[in-house]
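The freezer alarm interrupted the setup, so I double-checked each line after restarting. Inputs confirmed:
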Amino acid sequence: MFDKGKIEAIKLAAEGEGFDKSTPVLTDSGISLKPLYTPADIASIDYFDDLGFPGKPPFTRGVYHDMYRKQLWTRRQVCGYGTAEETNERLRYLNQSGQTGLNIVPDTPTIYGRDSDDPLCEGEVGREGVAVDSLEDMRDLFAGIPLDRVSTSVIYNYPILFCMYLAVAEEQGVPFANLAGTLQNDPFTIIAGAKSWITTPRGSMKLCVDVIEFCAQHLPRFNPVSVVGYHYREAGCTAAQEVGFTLAGGLAYAQAGVGRGLEIDDFAPRISFFYNAHNDFFEEIAKMRVARRLWHRLMTERFHPKNPRSAMLRFHTQTAGSSLTAQQPLNNIIRTTIQAMAAILGGTQSLHTNSYDEAFSLPSEPAVKIALRTQQILAYESGVTRTIDPLAGSYFVEALTQELETKARQIVEKIDELGGMLAAVEKNFVQQAITEAGLQKQKRIDSGEETVVGVNTFVEPEEKLNIEIMRLAPELEQKQVERVKAVRRKRDGKRAQEALQKLEKVAREGKNTIESTMEAVKTLATTGEIGQIYRKVFGTYTDPGL
Amino acid sequence: MKRYPSFRILVAKCGLDGHDRGARTVAISLRDAGMEVIYTGLHQTPEKVVNAALQEDADAIGLSILSGAHMTLFPKVQKLMQEKGLKDMLLFGGGVIPPDDAAALEAQGIGKIFPPGSSIPDIVDYLNRVLSERQAKKEEGKDSDSGPR
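Predicted 3D structure, all chains:
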């Protein structure tokens, strides 16, 4: 982009300035930073090949032509606790407060494909999300919410809740083609990141591709998969690994879809992503730009799509839960604000901001409100939305983007060598890499090399907690246990058993399970019963340990 | 540096909670600090955890809970330990646990509960101190049990 002679002169002059380089300064991913960046650091960039215009390949500057000038990101706060009725109340509250999309998280038992009265689930029902045992709960969850008017994200990785959602849509008279939203549906992240699987990596992958295939045929506006970097990052990985692991995962889903006989352009435009926004401000922005550029390059190299959207990476962002501290919890509002700003400058399509009290429990209502207000202040007062990709061309940000891309590509290639993402996860490679990175970070904090305000610096030893903590009613679990028992009593048990048997047969034959799962949920077959079919057909999976 | 005997620590995850960053980090770090560590892996029942601690002759069980089920699981493990006669074994832990709950658990005789943001050296120091004290007490007890000669 610059005159060659001039670049040489700048390089020389920069050397002459004699900046102190004796102590290495590293990003979270271990990239060594210079004290000062100049045009010489980005001299090799080709504007059209490496940046381009927003909405055009390689999408470094954003996926839409007008970005936030035309439409702000979707404010999409995660919501889910207790019973379906309680979560429904909070969903409506959030919508009244100006939230623009739903983002529902089920509780741990539901995520693991277990019913609330399963002895393994004691103490966990409705704690970290909403309990969904059957179609009845799903119906209550969406009561008064017309599914064709909101975009609904469900943080769930198997067809069970997806099929319940479809069944509710049917009851509301909403055609599948009008449904907009996202199912997380990322088996790799639940095996190696969130660690909340129902069955083996291979079985989970098969079920995931069933959803992709069904959506390609019936739900053109729905994202059947959201490839998640968030959980890997929360579990300890670096920004470079977050990009590497997600893109390797996305490529595996693309390959699997093609393996089912789908055309790449029939489904790849609907593969979406979900990233963490962590503390290292500039590296996080660079990370989101790299994810877009590298996804475009890898998809183009490997699948040669005709539709440019097949290689266009759209993503949701959540601020970093693991960066929140129990010490001086109000400081978390500031951390979240900085992280959210990185996500916006990184060009996110939707955003969840964490609440300041999440190092203790699920967020209280006032904490949730401040988290949403944080987004609104950034959106409407800060001015960061006024121009598209404002950091493009920054000597530093572009150089960092290039370096991070190289690192992320190396990770994708390492996973290729291992036989792809499924093999890498089966071999415990991803899990060990994440633990190692998390361990290094902990060491840096313990040694004081990395500063955490209120934790290893500016500590208040006699600190008293001055915030209200959200408490869930202890009788909630019993209430939900009674509820699932009542469902089993009142349904036509024979019909439910027959539907489950049919699902088992279809799964064993390797056919697409979505339609038979839908039939099963309509008979009020429960989450745990369907999960049990998965475990029976595809096997159980045990944590491989350290 | 002060030398401690090599304590045996069972690091455990109970229930369906998949958040294992803390447990894995603590397990590896305690090992690096010279302790013998057994990590149970995810999704254990309290029974399995206590049985493993018994079989492994552990000096302490470290339970990590980020699922909100701490008020159910800690007392359950504690009760099983008592039933098995493991009165010298320490039960401690960590996770996303509100301070009031941590205080309530500590008041019930459970060891220290480490919140997010705890440092590894603090955990190592705590274990070395408490387990050395327990060991010293045990030795004393043995001496007095043997009676006058």
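Quick read of the result. The radius of gyration of chain A is 24 Å.
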